[in-house]
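User: Okay, second chain of the day. Same drill as before: sequence in, structure tokens out.
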Amino acid sequence: MRDLSADDTLVHHRRRAIGARAREERMREQVILAARIDRVTSWGLESGDEALLSTLIRVAWVMEIPPATLME
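Assistant: Same drill. Structure tokens below.
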């Protein structure tokens, strides 16, 4: 088991990775509509803001990728 305090930048880096992936995919209008997320939420994902797990699961499902891929 890892101690999260050993790497306090983990969450920040993972959020940035999700944002980069969202920007890479350019969160096309079809993805936004199919995942049923609003524009503010999509902007938040692209900028690396906090995101609900359910939002990430819906986006990954629409993009036909495993949710973990969003953090690569």
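The chain has a mean pLDDT of 79.

User: Thanks, on to the next one.
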